[in-house]
């Protein structure tokens, strides 16, 4: 985890200078029951509220708006985020609700001058910590754009959010297919599955990895066939085939070039093709079961 955090800190140079997302103060006090977002959390949604739970009731007189600050650190001039402060005595939780959705970047929470009730007799030190709000496109949280040299220095590259898709490829797919006028969510889901499968090929370019690519392609064919049947009633066979071909977008050479973008990665692809050469494979069923997520439920 420490290695991953250091890697993430190096990527933050894209957003802010000299920002240490792991920097904190007072977060390990026994009086603190919970922090949300948590210290150094990197997948915080842009509608997040700051919630601090305590193990003892607070003196409500100490809960003043200026005692809780939320600052956006990702720009030269740190930006204070205005919001509303509340306290729930039942669960002993302080909540800071920003007035607007949070922009992409690193945020610092500062809580000071809070006091427990006299009966509790517990002192609360200043609390300060940071978290990261990623860019969100079409409901997907994007990982930071990786440093190109660092990302291409290894076979598998950088996958900070550990979802099996290289970060530069993931960002490209989500941003590209978000522009699709009719099927942005579906094409994104299928392309991400294909990129995930391709990463499996890079890692292990043998016949065992064929099933991952097959699943991604079969998911695409299942969807394309369903859409063709929906919209080509009365079309000729040629017209149906032409419509189907427009939907099978995974043959896009730009997508493949993005995945296999270094000589080492291209060589792995060649090794995979060589492993498949000369084999005869049975036909496969094209069904929703081949899809990593249920694309029928995406509403497109």
Can you give a write-up of this model?
With 300 residues, the protein is an alpha+beta fold. The protein folds into two domains: 2-134, Immunoglobulin-like; 140-297, no CATH class. It is 33% helix and 16% strand. The strands form three sheets. Strands 1-2-6-5 form a four-stranded antiparallel beta sheet, with no helix packed on it. It has a four-stranded antiparallel beta sheet with strand order 4-3-7-8, with no helix packed on it. A two-stranded antiparallel sheet has the order 9-10. Strand 9 and strand 10 (140-141) form a beta hairpin. The two termini are 38 Å apart. Residues 1-10 and 12-17 have low confidence and may be disordered.
State the end-to-end CA separation.
38 Å
The stretches of 5 or more residues where confidence is low (pLDDT under 50) are: 1-10, 12-17
Class derived from helix and strand content: alpha+beta
Strand content: 15-25%
Question: What's the count of strands?
Answer: 10
**Radius of gyration, Cα only, in angstroms?**
25 Å
Helical proportion, percent range: 25-40%
What's the overall geometry?
elongated
């Amino acid at each position: 985890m420490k290695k991953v955090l250091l890697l993430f800190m190096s990527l933050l140079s894209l957003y802010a200078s000299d920002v240490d997302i792991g920097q904190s103060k007072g977060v390990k006090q026994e009086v603190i029951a919970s922090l949300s977002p948590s210290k150094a959390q990197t997948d915080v949604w842009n509608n997040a509220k700051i919630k601090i739970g305590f193990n003892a009731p607070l003196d409500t007189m100490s809960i003043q708006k200026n005692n809780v600050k939320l600052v956006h650190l990702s720009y030269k001039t740190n930006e204070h985020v205005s919001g509303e402060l509340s306290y729930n005595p039942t669960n002993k939780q302080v909540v800071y609700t920003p007035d607007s959705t949070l922009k992409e970047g690193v945020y610092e929470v500062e809580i000071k001058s809070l006091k427990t009730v006299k009966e509790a007799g517990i002192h609360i030190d200043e609390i300060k910590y940071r978290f990261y709000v990623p860019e969100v496109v079409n409901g997907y949280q994007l990982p930071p754009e990786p440093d190109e040299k660092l990302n291409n220095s290894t076979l598998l590259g950088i996958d900070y959010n550990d979802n099996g898709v290289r970060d530069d490829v993931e960002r490209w797919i989500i941003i590209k297919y978000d522009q699709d006028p009719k099927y942005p969510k579906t094409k994104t889901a299928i392309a991400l599955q294909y990129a995930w499968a391709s990463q499996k090929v890079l890692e292990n370019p043998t016949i065992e990895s064929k099933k991952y690519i097959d699943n991604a392609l079969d998911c695409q064919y299942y969807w394309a066939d369903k859409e063709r049947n929906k919209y080509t009633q009365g079309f000729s066979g040629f017209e149906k085939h032409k419509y189907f071909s427009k939907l099978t977008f995974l043959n896009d050479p730009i997508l493949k070039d993005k995945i296999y973008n270094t000589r080492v990665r291209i060589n792995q692809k060649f090794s995979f093709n060589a492993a498949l050469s000369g084999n005869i494979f049975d036909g496969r069923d094209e069904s929703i079961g081949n899809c990593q997520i249920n694309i029928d439920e995406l509403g497109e």
